[in-house]
Design goal:
The protein is an alpha/beta fold and 270 residues long. The protein is built from eleven helices and ten strands. The longest helix has 12 residues.
C-alpha cells in the first residue's frame, strides 16, 4: 500500500519564518513546523513530515521501522515502530539494519509501504537502510528523516519496552517514573521512587488541575525539561494519556510503558 503524496515544506524555510527571515518569495507553510521536512537535495528515497507520520500511524498505512540498535529502540521508540537485527560484520559507526531481517518481518512483500526513522537530521542509518531496501527491490520506502529527536520536540511520546525499562531503571538515576493509576492503587504498591499522577484527575486544558499541581509540588522536573520521564499505569491507554499530557507541558523526553505495573516490576527486577 502506498503513502499519499502529501505536500511538505522544507524545515529551513519554516525555521527562517519563525524568526522573521524567510527566503525571498517563500510561501507560508500550510501547517507550520509539523509539515516540514529537511528537503534534502536529490534524495534516493522521499521524506515525510511529522504531520504525515502522525497520519500514517493513525491509519496504519505503512510499517514503521526504527532502524537504530535494539537497545535504543527498547529505551524509547515511536508507538508501533518495529525493530530488526543489524547487518552482520559492520562496525558500530556504520550500524545498518539487516534487509534480510526486514524481508522476514514482512513475509517477503517488497511492495509493502515502509517508513524508516533513526536519530534525526544528522543520522545516516535510515538513509543506509533505505538504499539497501531499494537495491533489494522494495518499491515503497520513505524516511522520517527528522527522526526521534524532532518527534519528541513536537510533542510526540515514545514507548519503552521491558528491557529498555530495566536499562533506564538501572542506569539513569535522574529518570522520573510516573504512576498513572488512581491514588488508592498507587498507595497499595508501586515501583520504588515512582510519583503519582492519576489519569482520572487530568483536565483538558494545559497548565491546569493536577498537572499544574505536579509542576508546583516537585512531581515533575521543572528545572530540567529534558529529564527522562517514563509513565506506567493499569494499561497502555491510561499510561499514554498521561504521557501525552505531560509532553504537552513542554517536557521533551517522555515515554510510556505499555504493560501493567506487575510487568514493569518483573522487567526491572530481572
Amino acid at each position: 500500500m502506498s503513502l499519499a503524496p502529501w505536500s511538505t515544506v522544507p524545515l529551513a524555510i519554516v525555521l527562517a519564518m519563525a524568526v522573521g527571515a524567510a527566503p525571498e518569495g517563500a510561501l507560508p507553510p500550510p501547517q507550520a513546523i509539523a509539515a516540514a521536512t529537511l528537503a534534502e537535495p536529490d534524495p534516493r528515497t522521499p521524506e515525510i513530515s511529522t504531520e504525515q507520520l502522525r497520519l500514517v500511524l493513525s491509519a496504519r498505512s505503512a510499517v514503521v521501522l526504527d532502524v537504530r540498535p535494539h537497545l535504543e529502540w527498547a529505551i524509547g521508540h515511536i508507538p508501533t515502530a518495529l525493530n530488526v537485527a543489524p547487518k552482520p560484520g559492520l562496525p558500530p559507526s556504520l550500524y545498518t539494519s539487516d534487509v534480510a531481517q526486514v524481508g522476514r518481518l514482512l513475509g517477503g512483500d517488497r511492495s509493502q509501504a515502509l517508513v524508516l526513522y533513526c536519530n534525526g537530521p544528522y543520522c545516516g542509518k535510515s538513509k543506509r537502510v533505505s538504499e539497501d531496501l531499494l537495491a533489494a527491490g522494495y518499491t515503497d520506502v520513505r524516511r522520517y528523516q527528522l527522526g526521534a529527536p524532532i518527534w519528541r520536540a513536537l510533542g510526540g511520546v515514545m514507548v519503552t519496552e521491558p528491557d529498555g525499562a530495566r536499562y533506564v531503571h538501572d542506569g539513569d538515576r535522574t529518570a522520573v517514573w510516573i504512576d498513572a493509576r488512581d491514588a488508592a492503587e498507587f498507595a497499595a504498591g508501586t515501583l520504588a521512587g515512582a510519583r503519582s499522577l492519576p489519569r482520572s484527575l487530568l483536565m483538558r486544558a494545559r497548565d491546569s488541575g493536577e498537572l499544574k499541581k505536579a509542576k508546583d509540588d516537585g512531581r515533575l522536573p521543572m528545572e530540567d525539561h529534558n529529564t527522562r520521564i517514563v509513565v506506567f499505569g493499569s494499561d497502555s491507554r491510561q499510561s499514554r494519556d498521561v504521557a501525552e499530557a505531560i509532553a504537552r507541558e513542554a517536557f521533551h523526553n517522555v515515554s510510556y510503558f505499555e504493560g501493567d505495573p506487575r510487568g514493569l516490576l518483573a522487567a526491572v527486577q530481572k
